[in-house]
Write a structure and sequence with these properties.
Strand content: 25-35%
Number of strands: 19
Shape: globular
CATH class of the largest domain: Alpha Beta
Radius of gyration: 20 Å
Distance between the termini: 41 Å
Number of helices: 6
Bound molecules: zinc ion
Oligomer: single chain
Helix content: 10-25%
Order of helices and strands: EEEEHEHHEEEHEHEHEEEEEEEEE
Length: 336
């Protein structure tokens, strides 16, 4: 029995059928108010003969709205005659989290992007991860996972991938990122604990995968939503899966994202005052932000410093912060 057959989730769509289908992945969920109920994860399949097989996904974190709206728009707009091969669209992958407007699921506290490879018999979030890794991904050649900063972070709109030691593989990833056309594209090394993400799941299943960090702040802006909608079409066209019109591609500046010294964390609990803006070039040792002790305002604020030179690509949004919260995140010039 193949691993996917162990999934308890039921897919309403037939992924082998040509045309546009919409419906739900049903997650069995027997609770007090609904003995035989299921949780509905929206999904669409748009297929036209043989060709590239692409998974477009968002809502891996429920409070990252830009990708969810862009993929909703793609479902409504894509006509099967404009598709070659098959596009599976999963706009709110962790639907219980999205419905609650939260990063993680209110049912089991599950962070879907830390739950792969999942568990067919696990809690709800792990069952969703298992279904994506073992049912959907083995039927795909490419995956695009649309994230943003969510409620706690704001990014300069970026695409991202994990560095591929194989030069030809790396060029494929860079090509997809160039096609998306975000202002920044960053290439990360495999970080600790990151074997539980969709990117890692894709790699395990032989699927070529890029992601995004589109904006954040738990909100949607016209410019970022426009980029998301155009970017997904440009990537599909680049892969040969979409033959409809695509707008011109803006340039992407490539950066590297490294380990701990690329991040600045709150040294204390208090109120965060940023001392730099997104897009600033900063130096090692430069003050990054101050944490104010609003419970004892006569105390001098605690200062967090950058541990290396770099470009500020991400910053924390909420004022109130706890020790260990990420305040900033840097990128440095990419070298192939
Ligand atoms: Zn995310």
């Amino acid at each position: 029995m193949d691993a996917g057959a162990r999934s308890r989730l039921f897919l309403e769509l037939d992924l082998t059928k040509d045309g546009k289908q919409t419906g739900f992945v049903r997650v069995p969920h027997s609770v007090h108010r609904s003995a035989y109920g299921w949780l509905p994860i929206p999904i669409a399949c748009i297929k036209n003969g043989e060709g590239p097989r692409v998974l477009m996904m968002a809502g891996n974190h429920g409070d990252e709205w830009e990708g969810q709206l862009a993929l909703g728009g793609l479902i409504r707009a894509l006509d099967p005659s404009q598709v070659r091969g098959r596009v599976i669209i999963l706009p709110s992958a962790n639907f219980p989290a999205a419905q609650a407007g939260l990063r993680t699921s209110p049912i089991d506290d599950g962070n879907l992007n830390r739950s792969f490879p999942g568990d067919a018999d696990g809690d709800v979030t792990r069952q969703i991860a298992f279904f994506i890794e073992h049912v959907l991904l083995p039927q795909c050649d490419y995956s695009i996972d649309l994230h943003s900063g969510g409620s706690s972070l704001m990014y300069i709109p970026s695409t991202l991938c994990r560095r591929d030691p194989d030069a030809a593989g790396m060029e494929k990833l860079l090509g997809m990122m160039r096609a998306f056309g975000a202002p920044l594209g960053w290439i990360g090394s495999a970080l600790q604990g990151m074997d539980r993400t969709l990117t890692a799941a894709s790699r395990r299943q032989g699927v070529i995968s890029i992601g995004t960090e589109l904006g954040g702040g738990g909100q949607v802006t016209p410019s970022v939503l426009k980029l998301a909608g155009e970017g997904v079409r440009r990537v599909l066209a680049h892969l040969g899966a979409y033959t409809g019109p695509v707008p011109a591609t803006p340039p992407t500046r490539f950066l590297t994202m490294g380990g701990n010294d690329y991040y600045v964390y709150a040294p204390d609990g208090g109120v965060f005052e940023p001392l730099v803006e997104l897009g600033d070039e900063v130096k090692r040792g430069q003050p990054a932000g101050r944490i104010h002790f609003h419970d004892t305002p006569w105390r001098e604020p605690s200062v967090a410093h950058f541990e290396r030179d770099g470009l500020v690509i991400c910053k924390r949004v909420p004022g109130r912060s706890e020790r260990g919260d990420c305040l900033f995140h840097l990128g440095t010039p990419y070298e192939a």
